Each structure stands twice: as C-alpha cells, then as structure tokens.
Amino acid sequence: MAATQSNTQIADLLTESDDRQSPASKTVGVLHVINGEHYAGAERVQDLLAGRLPQFGFEVGFACVKLARFGELRQSRETPLFDARMRSKFDLRPAREIARIVRRDGYRLIHGHTVRTALVGALAARLAGVPFVYHVHSPTSRNGTGRWSDRANAFLERLCLRKAARLIAVSESLAGEMIRRGYPSERIGVVHNGVSALYELPFRAAPRGRWTLGTVALFRPRKGLEVLLDALAILRRNGCPIRLKAVGAFETPEYQRAIRERAVRLGLNEIIEWTGFTCDVTSELLTLDLFALPSLFGEGLPMVILEAMAAGVPVVASAVEGVPEAIRDGRDGLLTIPGDADDMARKITAVIDGRTDWQSLRLNAIERQGQYFSDESMARGVAKVYRGVLG
C-alpha cells in the first residue's frame, strides 16, 4: 500500500501545471548530433528527450556520426534519423551534410553530446548559422584510463566549445568541474538526468534467503567491476547468501577476459550470471534485490541509478561525482568509498542483516526519483535552455 500511495503522489506532482506547449503552439526543430555507436546512459538520455521535448514545444531530429546500436534500439521510432557517419575521429566532412539538413528541414539549433559530435556539430552550426548547445554527460578529462587520450579529448572539447551558446551539465558536480576548467559559469546550466517513473510497481516484502545483487553497465575499467567482485568474495567468506547478476556488454574482449579470470580466481563463477547487453534494463532491475554501482570515477549522473530507484531497487553506489546528488546516504540508498571493496561489503551486509531498512530505502528512492529525476523534469530543463538560447 505504501508503494502505491508514493507512486500516486508522484503522478500528482507530474500532472501539475507547467510550461508545456498548447496543442496549437508551433514547435521548433532541434537537431541532436549523437554518436549512435552504443545504447548506454547518454543514448537513453537522447532517446527520452526525443519523446518528451515535443510537449514543451521542441521537435527532435538525430544525426548519427557512428550509426550502429542506437538506430536499432531507440524507442523514439518516429524521430527522424540521419546518417552523418564520420570515417575517422577527425573527419569533418559530415559537418557540411549536417548543415545542409539543418537548412533544408528548418532546424533552429544543433545539440551535441560527445567530443566527436562537438567537432562536427559546432562546425555545422557555424555553416548553417544556428546556435550550438553541448550536453556534458561525464568529465572528459577523466572518462577513461588513458591519461593522454583523456587530456587530448579535453583539449579538443575546449576548442570545439569556444563558440557554444550553452553547456548543459547533468549534475552540479560536473558543472563545477567545467567551471574549474575555465568555462564561463554564465554559459553553464544544470539539468539533472531523468527517467520514466513506473506507476504500477507492486508491493514487495524484504527479501528472504539468498539475495540477488545486480549491476548494469557498459563494462570498462572505470566502472569498478573489480571492486564489486572483491566485495562479493568478502560477503561469501562472511557467509552472506548472495548471488550477482551482471547485465551489460564489455567494452573490449581483453577486459572481459580479465574480469572473467578474476571471478574464477576468487571462486565466484558459480554465483555470477553474465547476462550480456539488454535494451530492457527495467525488466532486469525488477529481478534484483539490491543494485550496485562501484564506479571509480567518470560519472556525471548515471541513468541506471535513476532507473533502479524508479524500479524500487535499493542502490549501493560509490560516492563519485553526481551520484550523491541523487542518493542521500542512508535515506534513498547507500554510498560507499570509491575503490573500497570492504566498505561496499559492509554497506551491503547492513541491508541484508536488517540494520539498514530495505523497505524504507525502496520507498524513499521511488518517491525521490519521481519528484526530482523524471524524464519530464529533464525535458523541461532542456527546453528552458533552448528558449534562453533562442530568445
């Protein structure tokens, strides 16, 4: 009953009067220049915005510079999708094609999302005579484990964003980092990521017996999967009845092999289910008792944390970058020290043995996500940025 009441309150909040467009209002076209190679957190942001922005007066089109999984898996099937493929990282030829699309179809603004899309998007905006807006999803200077490649990308990003009309940071933490890197604060706006609320969540009692811990990611070194495996080994030694469901693809075969070998060395193979990539993240989350995100760095505001909150799955996550803006430690989830497997194991144990109330975490997370991190609130914030840019 408590879960139903909580979801009803969220629904009431979302139906309050806001700045949506009336049916008679004319919409404005915005072309999102995206990578399109994967379908992970940033791509889900783009997909959700395409579905939600029309109610605020903006119609979205997509131009993909690395058209692959996004074209196959996106939910916004009615949104125009243009192939503007780059043949290499520094191939600027698609900028001319993107500018031609903007002029032909009357798009008023170009919105980029990655360093690669900033390279061609900013140039296309200059050629077409429209403003360029850039979405900062993660800290470019700490996005991977290649120190020099991260520095090079950060330098390239800075060159491309000199003429950007506005930067949209997905967290206050990320906005602060951009300011520290020398970007003018008056050009930076914060729009927290958001996901769809689930209004039909059934009541769940606290788990009994063996617990299912899960994690969802495009697995790469900065996601900290090694820390989670080490924490899992500690939990097993302490007699905690637990299993892990790992949902997602690996960035490289080499990293996949290293992680699988680590799991074998730790004696965890029989309690881990490697499910691979799925575009239906919600269905996987609903099979979990706890969600873990052991990221080491490089997170803006992870979409999967918000999706876990919406699904009523308590989150145990490392306190990196924007994560504490969504999770209030001990209220909506639990925060751990980045890179500390012992701390993660302690926090998970506290939930399993009842010292931290699982049901309270679940209900608080559902309410907080619906109130502050919905796809509608995200689209409203982005639309406000667009209006400011377009005057």
Characterize the structure shown.
This protein has helices at residues 2-14, 41-52, 69-73, 93-105, 115-128, 147-160, 172-180, 225-237, 253-265, 281-285, 303-310, 323-326, 341-352, 358-372, 375-390; strands at residues 28-34, 58-64, 81-83, 109-112, 132-136, 166-169, 188-190, 211-216, 242-247, 272-276, 290-293, 315-318, 333-336. It has 391 residues and is an alpha/beta fold. It has two domains: 21-194 and 374-390, Rossmann fold (3-Layer(aba) Sandwich); 211-372, Rossmann fold (3-Layer(aba) Sandwich), CATH 3.40.50. The strands form two sheets. It has a seven-stranded parallel sheet, sandwiched between helices. The protein has a six-stranded parallel sheet with strand order 10-9-8-11-12-13, sandwiched between helices. The longest helix has 16 residues, at 375-390. The radius of gyration is 21 Å and the shape is globular.
